[in-house]
Amino acid sequence: MAVLMVVLTTVIYNILNKSSNTSKRVSRSLQITNRLKEVLNTLTDAETGERGYIITGNEAFLKSYLLAKEKNYQIINPDSLLASIPEYPEKISLLNRLIREKIGYVDTIINLVRTGNQAKAAEITNIGNGRMLMDSIRLAIDDMQLEEGNRISRVYPEELNDNNKIFILLVSVAGCCLLLLLIFYQMVLRNARLREKTEAELLEAKNIAETANKAKTSFLALMSHEIRTPMHDIVATSSLLLETGITEEQKAHSDTIYRASMALLSVVNDIIDFSRIETGAIPLEHTPFVLRDCLDEVFSAAAPSTLHGRRLYYIDDAIPELIECDPARLRQVLLSILGNSPKAIENGEIGLSVRLLNSEHGSLQLRFTVMNTSASNFDNPEDAPVVDESTEPIENNLFGISSLRFSITARLISLMGGTIKLMDENSKGNTVTFTIKASKVDTKSSELFFAKRKKIEMLDGKLANNLPLNILVVDDYEMNQVLLVQILAKMGYTCKTARNGAEATGLAVDTKFDIIFMDIVMPVMDGIEATKRIREYYVNSDTPFIVGVTANALMKDKQRGIEAGMNDFIIKPYKPLDVQSLIKKWGPQVLTPSPEV
Question: Taking every pair of C-alpha atoms in the chain, what is the biggest distance, in angstroms?
């Protein structure tokens, strides 16, 4: 700003053509200002050359540094123009000292680099002494420039008449307006650059987040496939075993194997559910079920090795036998709390109480309380602290709830319209209490439910006679392939098999199949590509119904299959009745002749 005032004063002086005395004073001020600018520019060039040399090691960058070194030791001396002003000797002395220190500092850095001590040079540079010296030099020069501007503003009005003063005022106002415009322009330019930088950073952060999300999705898909594949063998084999003529004791053991494998599968589902909850993509079902049966299944799965021990649960008589909510998610919540109880408790039992808190307009609010039975009774958990879904579970709690499970459990309970509370064992014993919202089931729906429940669906050994179908089973994992063939054999079907998509495509070209069970992940050619080629081959005729068989529970994989031309999906591990349901669903459509075109 001081430089602008000097320039503006010089322009006014030339226009008015004032006395030589005033002209000499203005000229001297300009010379002083230019000399100060020269000092600052020379030092700035030296500093720039120093940085260039440090970064590149190129001696060419030292040209400005050597020039500054040659000039600046005597750039301002007592005999110079500046020394003619009484107020300046002390300021000149300060400025000379700062310049010598700055040149000496640059000498030190360059000598260290030349001798190979780049690390030491970088250490000294990072301290910031050079930058502080340069800031001090700028402040000293700005002070002297400002002093010159003030000197001219004091001297110049004495030489002007009233008209000239008015003119100067107008020109000054115009100059101030111009200065304000320049400042405004700089602010707009700075904001634009800042906005561009912010947008670039946000875009980069978005790309990083998307990349991380893709990596997580890929990991979940791989983990789901690798774990579900052997789990499918356990679930399907135990289901087939239950269909055979075994003793009650063998049936109980087989049923325990089945339930335990389903509980293990819930661990995989926990991981996938956590990802779904994060994206808000987890749906809730509203299905009628018997609450007592649900609790029996939970206790059986949570502690299959201690089924002969005393297990306590109490259901309020005011709660209807049949209620409606999401039984799978309720089981998941209870298993998250009870699932670690055998390893968390060496002695003692777990008690579960379900009470009705509120009932109006067909809506039920239920409170579940889980505690060690040696703690306070079930009716006194109300003063337990409220724990939101981001809170970690109490450390070393009786039920051993992991952080991941607790987070999933709290969010599921929130989705079901409730809250969860924890009580530390140091106060009133380990207690977990949570609420959910459910609905009453009307009389007609209740009657239909219990009537259907009496009809225990089994595998239909004569299904192949009623729905004769030519079926192809495609799976690279031999055990999975054998299990599916055995399940279909229980229904009376004799199937052909293929180990990869390439074999399946060749068989589908040679033979017209009605239904193809196509695994998704296979070597040589995967199920997606095989489905595309089969659809291309049968483009002008009836194509087989293709059911995708996958261990990946992600919607993305299902969408890929549908786009490739698959008609339906079955997710490992599946039960024999799931396969039978698919046959009954698609069989009649296969056997119905297509209308002639």
Answer: 126
Of 76, 79, 87, 7, which is closest to residue 43 (Cα–Cα)?
76
Residue 204 within a domain: no
pLDDT confidence band for 493 (50 / 70 / 90): very high
Beta strand extents in 417-511 (DSSP E only): 420-423, 431-440, 471-474, 496-498
Q: The whole model's pTM is what? A: 0.43
The answer to whether the beta carbons of residues 36 and 141 sit under 8 Å apart is: yes
- Only one residue has tokens 């060419």, namely 60
Q: Are 401 and 340 in contact (CB under 8 A)?
A: yes
Question: Which residues are within 8 A (CB) of 312 and not within 5 positions of it... i.e. 6 or more apart?
Answer: 349, 350, 351, 352, 373
Out of 53-67, 205-219, 398-412, pick the least confident.
398-412
Which structural domain range is residue 328 located in?
A: 283-454
Same domain for 330 and 369?
yes
Q: What is the number of other CB atoms lying within 10 angstroms of the CB of residue 421?
A: 18
* 397 and 317 co-located in one domain: yes
Q: What is the 3-state secondary structure (H, E, C) of 416-430?
A: CCCCEEEECCCCCCC
Question: Which residues lie below 8 Å from residue 31, measured CB to CB, with a gap of 6+?
Answer: 81
Is residue 520, in this structure, part of any structural domain at all?
A: yes
